[in-house]
Automatic annotation (TrEMBL):
Keywords: Membrane, Transmembrane, Transmembrane helix. This is Membrane protein YkvI. InterPro entries: YkvI-like. The chain crosses the membrane at residues 38-58, 79-98, 110-127, 139-157, 177-195, 204-222, 251-274, 286-305, 311-333. The keyword Membrane applies. It comes from the Bacteria. The keyword Transmembrane applies. Signal peptide: none annotated. PANTHER family: CONSERVED MEMBRANE PROTEIN, MEMBRANE PROTEIN.
Length: 340
């Protein structure tokens, strides 16, 4: 039970912490100054959303996101949101691939070398179907989370930052809605693909509460650090590198590797959502479908990482507000439809 719960927890976190989040760019676009309450609300919204999505997925024993999506938004809107989820997964996976290129540049490598490495790694991963992703998350995510938290706490203590000095300033609390909404579609896509592998309600609670708390703690500490270097963020494609600018090169290399793993796990989750949906239309091996999808994505990475995050993420955050509302209200309206 506990191991399975942690496995799903790492899948959820791996879906959420991608290039945009781990680099600090996504957090800064949504939060920034006066956002402590917004992050607390995000934890609550995110946890409730995970519980609802996992419960529906478990009840339907789903192997892709369509049955889960239909239950959440209803038959009339399912086709619209089916297309939206597909486009969301597609565009954000392009962002992850671009993030790999940007990470490669931090090592003075060609942008396209960084792109090539993640594309090859994704193809190899899916030779084992979905089990490859689940297995690698159990090893990568604990390393990623502990490494990111270590760097952020080190910066906090080195700069003698107070974690609660701005708590009386909370005018940006509404950002919780758009940031939470941004993250619900990939959760539906990925959790919907593993409903037939969940075996108990205890797994659902462990995964949902655990992922919400971990993301909340890291988001709060991270955002607090970004506020301190707010004047320098515009100069950096990846804000985390502004935090690390006075640290030894070894630290920069270490965090760059962690960033790449964050990019990789989220790209893998996005690919999982796409290919499990497309398998109903194409009778070919999963890895072959992955190759076809990646071939169409690579040319779109030319737009650049920070540009994609700045424009795509806020748009989807607003469009997904309806889905978030349905998820948060599901405990009230879902009971009347439980026998559908």
């Amino acid at each position: 039970m506990w191991r399975a719960g942690f496995k799903w927890m790492f899948l959820i976190i791996g879906t959420t912490i991608g290039a945009g989040y781990a680099s600090g760019r996504e957090l800064w676009e949504f939060f920034g100054h006066e956002s402590g309450l917004a992050i607390l609300l995000f934890v609550i919204f995110f946890t409730i959303s995970c519980i609802v999505i996992m419960n529906i997925s478990y009840q339907r024993q789903s192997s892709d996101y369509l049955p889960v999506l239909r239950k959440i938004v209803g038959d009339k809107l399912t086709k619209i949101y089916d297309i939206m989820i597909f486009l969301y997964l597609f565009t954000t996976t392009v962002v992850m691939i671009a993030g790999s290129g940007a990470t490669g540049q931090s090592f003075n490598l060609s942008y396209w070398w960084g792109v090539a490495v993640i594309v090859i790694a994704l193809i190899v991963l899916f030779f084992r179907d979905i089990n490859g992703l689940l297995s690698i998350n159990e090893y990568i995510l604990p390393l990623l989370l502990s490494g990111l938290l270590y760097v952020l706490l080190l910066f906090t203590f080195d700069q003698d930052l107070s974690l609660f000095s701005h708590w009386h300033e909370q005018r940006n609390w509404t950002a919780a809605f758009s940031f939470s909404a941004l993250n619900v579609l990939p959760l539906i896509a990925v959790i919907g693909a593993i409903g037939n592998k969940i075996h108990s309600k205890q797994e659902i609670w462990i995964a949902s509460v655990g992922s919400g708390l971990i993301l909340g703690v890291i988001s709060y500490i991270y955002n607090n650090s970004l506020i301190y270097i707010a004047d320098e963020i515009l100069l950096y494609e990846i804000p985390l590198f502004a935090i690390l600018k006075n640290y030894p090169i070894e630290m920069l290399i270490f965090i760059s590797i962690l960033l790449w793993f964050a990019v990789f796990t989220t790209a893998a989750a996005g690919i999982l959502g796409i290919v499990t949906r497309l398998q109903h239309f194409f009778n070919i091996p999963l890895w072959m479908l992955v190759i076809i999808i990646l071939t169409t994505m690579v040319p779109l990475t030319i737009f650049g990482f920070s540009t994609l995050v700045a424009y795509i993420y806020p748009i989807y955050g607003i469009l997904n507000l309806y889905v978030l509302t349905r998820l948060l209200l599901y405990p009230f309206w879902g009971a009347s439809r439980k026998h559908e």
